[in-house]
Amino acid sequence: MHSDNFQLGLLHFVHLLVTVDGHIDDRERAAILEIKKEESISDKVFHDFERKAEIASEAEIYTDGINFLSSCSEDEKLAAFVHLYKLAEADTSISNKEVRFLLYGLKATKISFEDVVLTAGMSGR
Questions:
Q1: Are 14 and 35 in contact (CB under 8 A)?
Q2: What is the DSSP letter of 72?
């Protein structure tokens, strides 16, 4: 079971990736719900975050997401970025902004992109 900071950091970055184009489509919504289920994110945590995301700026979401993930264990940070990598990979097109979010997030949390790719490949999906 991952920490609350892991769940919140993951939700912040998932939100940034799926809203980068201005809207959340059905495939992205399904991916969010799959991550919510897989990581046992409670309805309360999920809905509290959704309410926050409606009024927070992109910069606030990013900064808060980095703060949450920075306080996580190395394994949790890696697990979060594996989810984000798979989410970006599943997208039919990845924007420069999505790449920047991921790369800046990796740098801020000191996680290796190579470790993310390797772990994502080992986990199958």
A1: yes
A2: S
- CA distance from start to end of the chain: 20
Q: Of 75, 90, 73, nearest to 35 (Cα)? A: 90
Contacts of 98 (CB under 8 A, 6+ apart): 17, 20, 88, 91
By mean pLDDT, which of 25-29, 52-56, 112-116 is the weakest?
A: 25-29
Residue 58, C-beta contacts closer than 8 angstroms, at least 6 positions apart: 16
Burial bucket for residue 23 (CB in 10 Å: 0-12, 13-18, 19+): exposed
- pLDDT tens string 75-117: 999 999 999 988 887 766 777 888 888 888 999 999 999 999 9
